[in-house]
Specification:
Layout (H helix, E strand, L loop, with lengths): L7 E8 L1 H19 L3 E8 L3 H8 L7 E11 L10 E5 L9 E9 L3 H12 L4 E9 L12 E5 L5 E2 L15 E6 L7
Parallel strand pairs: 2-3, 2-5, 5-6, 6-7
Antiparallel strand pairs: 1-9, 3-4, 8-9
Helix pairs in contact: 1-2
Bound molecules: guanosine-5'-monophosphate.
The site of guanosine-5'-monophosphate has 17 residues, from strand 5, helix 3 and strand 8.
Length: 188
């Protein structure tokens, strides 16, 4: 999202920190079972996935050899409609050839970002590429992109917190909130 004047305010909590923590722990258990005895490069998509990823990796069992890497992407075109063309602003540090890669993303909306990213990864000839998303908005899906690990399916509403922002704000909130349009109240 671009920087700009903030005309939204926090509405209600959609997912609280307890629900999130329980689900993150379940996903980490699944990941541990799948990759036991193997190495994975957990690759977070900056910046939205950072909080989810750091909670997730701490719950993955020591029988998995976890490495961490990051990518930063920005979509071309205007920020409210995903163009599907993604520019890599920061690439991964290490080669993924012959390695297991787990892409960690905050939210799948249209699916364009993740399908583009997994295409790029696959072309680098890793051993495997899977995706892990905290939130999925199926109503908005425009392309199929397979999700191996999914936190929650949510309705088509804009949410913030737990890494997700609006104009750079609210990433630090421990819960996930719906936002609503600012009407008469003070600007937040
Ligand atoms: P996609 O390519 O799947 O349409 O776009 C995914 C990206 O859109 C996410 O990484 C996120 O940056 C942004 N996005 C989509 N829905 C939301 C939302 O409800 N809240 C926030 N904060 N970002 C969103």
């Amino acid at each position: 999202m671009g920087e700009g004047k903030c005309d939204l305010r926090l509405g209600k909590i959609l997912l609280d920190r307890g629900e999130i923590a329980r689900r993150v722990s379940e996903i980490a258990d699944e990941i541990t079972r799948t990759y036991s005895g193997q190495e994975i490069i957990v690759t977070g998509v900056l910046k939205g996935a950072v909080i989810f990823m750091t909670d997730l990796v701490r719950q993955i069992g020591s029988e998995v050899d976890v490495r961490m890497d990051f990518m930063a992407v920005s979509s071309y075109g205007n920020s409210s409609t995903s163009s599907g063309v993604v520019k890599i602003v920061k690439d991964m540090d290490a080669s993924i050839e012959g390695k297991n890669v787990l892409i960690v993303e905050d939210i799948m909306d249209t699916g364009l970002t993740l399908s583009y990213l997994s295409g790029i990864m696959t072309a680098r000839e890793p051993k495997s590429v899977r995706t892990c998303v905290l939130l999925e908005k199926p109503e908005r899906k425009r392309v199929e992109s397979k999700i191996a690990y999914r936190g929650f399916v949510i309705p088509d509403e804009f949410v913030v917190g737990y890494g997700l922002d609006y104009a750079g704000r609210w990433r630090n909130l421990p819960d996930i909130w719906r936002v609503e349009e600012e009407r008469n109240g003070p600007r937040v």
